[in-house]
Batch of 2 targets.
Target 1
Amino acid sequence: EAGVAQSPRYKIIEKRQSVAFWCNPISGHATLYWYQQILGQGPKLLIQFQNNGVVDDSQLPKDRFSAERLKGVDSTLKIQPAKLEDSAVYLCASSPDRGFMNTEAFFGQGTRLTVV
Amino acid sequence: AQKVTQAQTEISVVEKEDVTLDCVYETRDTTYYLFWYKQPPSGELVFLIRRNSFDEQNEISGRYSWNFQKSTSSFNFTITASQVVDSAVYFCALSNDYKLSFGAGTTVTVRA
C-alpha cells in the first residue's frame, strides 16, 4: 500500500514570496491533516479536512495560509506571502476515519521550507 | 483543552542501555487516546502504539514497552537494550477522538 506522498521535499524561498505544497493521502482515507513542525517542536495542526470539507482550521493563519482539498482526495497548502517564521517542516497526514478510536494518523515525509 | 508534556528534551545513551521516555498529559475528556510516534532523520512520523483511556494494561512489543497510569496522567515509553537504529525523535500525542496534539518530542541518541 502506498503511503502519504508529499512534494516538494525541500523548498527555499525569499520572504514575501509565495509557495505551495502538495499532498496525496493514502487511497480511501477520508481525513487529511496538515501539520507545521518548527525545528525543536512537536507538530502543530494547521487544518483538518473530512473528505473535502474543513472540520478544524482554528490554528491556520488565514491571512497568509490557505488550503484546499478538491474532490476529497489530494490537497494543496499555500503560503502567501511567506514570513521568516514560516520556516518549518510541513507534514501531511491521513487517516481512514475522522476519529482515532480504531486507527492512527499516517504521515508523509514532509516538505522542509526555508524562508530567507 | 488538551496538553502533552515531554519534559526530557534530549537523552543520550550507550548501546544496550535501557532508556525511558516520560510523557504527561492533560485532558478533561474521559475518553481519549494516547500515541507514541518515532521520527527518524528521514522526517516521516512512524506510528508505534495507540492506547485508549479505558485500557491501562501495560504493553510490550519486542524491545519496546509502555506504561500507562491514569492516576498520574502518564504514558511512559521504555526501549530495552537500545540500538543505534533507535536514534530518533520520539513524540507522545493525545487525541480526544478527532484532534491529535503532540508533545515537543524527546531526541534519543544511542552511541555505539
Target 2
Amino acid sequence: EDKVVQSPLSLVVHEGDTVTLNCSYEVTNFRSLLWYKQEKKAPTFLFMLTSSGIEKKSGRLSSILDKKELFSILNITATQTGDSAVYLCAVEANGNKLVFGAGTILRVKS
Amino acid sequence: DSGVTQTPKHLITATGQRVTLRCSPRSGDLSVYWYQQSLDQGLQFLIQYYNGEERAKGNILERFSAQQFPDLHSELNLSSLELGDSALYFCASSVQVETDTQYFGPGTRLTVL
C-alpha cells in the first residue's frame, strides 16, 4: 500500500527560527514529490521534485529529495507568522494518483 | 487565486440525497483531479480525468461518479449521501496528464445532516 509519512505532526517556533519538515514515502512507481502549504483554504503549490540531490529554492523556502533513502525535507528559514499553516507532502505514484501525508502543522509565534 | 473555480462554495443536504459539484479548470489545463478532505482521513485522491477520459482512480466510492465534458469542466456526483460524506471536496487541474503541477480550486464544503 502506498504510504507517505510526515514528521513532526506539529511544531511551534518563534519568528526568526529555522524549521525543517520531513516527508518519507513508500510508493509504487514514484514519479514526483510535491510540497503544498494549506492555510484555511485550498492547498497552494510550493515545489515539485523529481530528481535526487537538486535543491529547489523559493525565497526563504527550500526543498530537496533523496530518492535512494525515500525522503524529502522542506526548510523554512527566518520564519514569519505568515508561515503558519499546514504543510502537506504528496507523492505522485502509480496511476498518476497523488498520495498525501497527514501534514505538519506549523505555528510561528511573534 | 489559482484560476480553478468550483461551485457551489457550500452545500448542506440530508442523508440519502444526491448532489453535483462542479469544477472549471484553469484555461488550457486538460487534466482535472478530484480530492476529498475530511478531518479524520486527511486529503484523499478520488479520480482524474484527462481531456474527457478517466485516467486514474483512487479511493472513490461506488456511490460517487465523475465526468469531464467537452469544454473540460468536470462534475462530481455524490449519491445516497451518508453523514460520513461530509467533507471539503477539492478540484485541481494541470496542463499535462502526469508529473505536472496541480493547481487547486477553493473547494466545496459539503455537509450532510
